[in-house]
Amino acid sequence: VFMLFVEKRLLLLAIPLGLGGLFFLPDTILNRILSIANFADSSNDYRIRMWKITLELIRDNWLVGVGFGHLPFKAAFGKYTRTMPTYHAHNTYLETMAEMGVIGFIVFISFLFVLFKYSIKKLIKGNDKYIKIVSSGILSGLAAVLVHGLVENILYIPRIITTFWILVGLLLTLVQIKEKP
After folding, report:
1. Confidence category of residue 180, pLDDT binned at 50, 70, 90
2. Other beta carbons within 10 Å of 149
3. Which of 33, 127, 149, 177 has a 20 to 30 Å separation from 21 between CA atoms?
4. How many domains does one find in the chain?
5. Measured between alpha carbons, how far is 55 from 77 in angstroms, rounded to an integer?
6. What is the pLDDT of residue 179?
């Protein structure tokens, strides 16, 4: 993602290097990557069961959710299962929907959509290379957190959520800086 905004020609170099780098990964990491699509893997099976239960919770609390934070989620989740204690849904988007309902989910997704759309638009039109590089790096970091959010809800961890919002603030500040003529 970062290279698409900074230097597209580097992407042609990065793809073969990235693929070639797979051969040098330790076996434990390579096996973990290969297990991602294996639904018989215990961690994948666990996540899928968590998601199904969370979807039931969402179905019953779809408008405003069960309440913000892991304690209301944990209390509500316990009513749906007694065999799998958990503190979160292992998915940022399902967790957001479960906690804040469709209203909170739409606000969250709309905010992210506007943030990325506005930032990318400014990046494409901008001429200041430094601002483009820093903004691209921040956008890439935010994108990585959001993609990781598909398999884990890391936004409830204080250090990560604080860093996330600081990066959002920096990004919004950078894209508003007037460029020199």
Report:
1. low
2. 18
3. 149
4. 1
5. 10
6. 59
